[in-house]
Design brief:
10-stranded mixed sheet, about 270 residues, UDP-N-acetylmuramoyl-L-alanine:D-glutamate ligase, alpha/beta, 11 helices, globular
């Protein structure tokens, strides 16, 4: 399996004539109860270079998001039609669904609508649980641009639903079965796609194993993907940058610390201005 290193990919260069709409626009679905996860993802996407990030959440908790996110656009969702309306904006280039979302009918609708809209779609956390439960969603995903970022437990749910053989190339088996890109999180994170490409990321310290760091990873990947990287390279670069940011801290690090270290991690591989 190929070792994931910066020699294999290049983060999108900045251009002197860039403006925020040319840097990609990430849309994040915010949960109605657990509000921290999607906020971490949104801020990570912004820190990674997305020109705009919008977080949409149920109207009842929208004030929590609006009061705490200054650089992220926040939108209240009064009903399912509001999410649909956001997806109609052609400037939105990537969508994050799952962190802190809750496994419910609202998430199901948001996932279905996002797949129908043919947006680049990163699925994490509760969206993966929903995907494992619903075969119709898995069928609808075929041929779409999708990245899945499961941890071990979420992988087992999906593998069980698909009756996959769990051998040495588990991430590749899931990626092939669904025709998507998979980042399987662990002490050795494995990135695979439906074409058979596979990379192992070992550039990460053990103190990354703490709550919220996976949400930050989802945001990093979506931010890179929104700027034009391929799904496979965005996932690979995201895993490396996530580890690099963590390596700049030490034991006792929390997820929020990664956000502060992302600019330095990016500087380590930045190609500058084109």
């Amino acid at each position: 399996m190929q070792e994931n290193t910066p020699a294999l990919w290049k983060i999108p260069p900045l251009a002197a004539e860039d403006h925020k709409y040319r840097r990609g626009h990430v849309l994040v679905y915010g949960g109605g109860t657990l509000t921290g996860a999607s906020r971490l993802a949104a801020l990570a996407a912004l820190r990674t270079g997305a020109g705009l990030v919008t977080l949409a959440a149920p109207h009842s908790v929208w004030p929590v998001y609006a009061a705490s996110l200054l650089s992220v656009i926040t939108r209240p969702l009064a009903g399912t039609e509001d999410w649909q309306a956001l997806l109609e904006d052609a400037r939105i280039t990537a969508v994050i669904l799952g962190p802190g979302a809750g496994v419910d009918r609202r998430l199901h609708h948001a996932l279905t609508a996002s797949l129908t809209a043919n947006k680049k779609l990163l699925l994490d956390a509760d969206a993966l649980t929903l995907l494992a439960q619903d075969a119709s969603l898995r069928a609808q995903m075929q041929g779409k641009e999708v990245i899945l970022t499961p941890h071990e437990g979420e992988y087992e749910k999906l593998a069980g639903a698909l009756r996959l053989e769990t051998g040495a190339h588990r991430a590749r088996a899931l990626a092939t079965a669904l025709g998507v890109t998979v980042l399987l999180k662990g002490a050795e994170t494995v990135i695979a796609d439906g074409a058979g490409q596979e990379r192992a990321n070992r550039h990460a310290p053990p103190w990354l194993a703490t709550a919220g760091t996976g949400d930050v990873l989802a945001g990093i990947i979506a931010g890179l993907w929104a700027q034009g990287m391929t799904a496979f390279d965005a996932a690979s670069a995201g895993a490396w940058l996530h580890g690099e940011a963590a390596l700049r801290r030490t034991r006792g690090m929390i997820a929020e610390d990664l956000l502060a270290e992302l600019p330095a991690a990016l500087a380590a591989v930045d190609v500058g201005i084109s």
